Amino acid sequence: xxxxxxxxxxxxxxxxxxxxxxxxxxxxxxxxxxxxxxxxxxxxxxxxxxxxxxxxxxxxxxxxxxxxxxxxxxxxxxxxxxxxxxxxxxxxxxxxxxxxxxxxxxxxxxxxxxxxxxxxxxxxxxxxxxxxxxxxxxxxxxxxxxxxxxxxxxxxxxxxx
Length: 161
Hints:
- There is one protein chain.
- This protein is mainly alpha-helical.
- The chain has one domain (3-152).
- It has helices at 3-26, 31-48, 52-77, 84-97, 102-123, 137-152.
């Protein structure tokens, strides 16, 4: 990894850590952080010399995919189940990691969320039901960080940056 890789990773991890704490406490992912994070991901792609179009496409697909899930869930259940902040955070993941990384980010986020629900909440005796709210942002942040770091370390094929 180069000095630029370390600097970009530090910026991304810091923003994701802040978003994790905020979402875990408030169930909100503020635009004040998520929107600049999307732009920073596209900028990072340019700095590294990677195809900026894959980064921009990743942001667009990431946002659209989770808005689609949000709307489908709302139509099926008659209530909100996923916030728009999650879609913006997923867009940031697409911007930082590239369009082709989105399925891997979502897989890591979903598996880590299932582990949290299945192990941490059950073992601690906290309720688990379809009506119980769980912030998804921390798990998306984990998925984004994991895939970005694996890409930077060369342990995963670069899927955008």
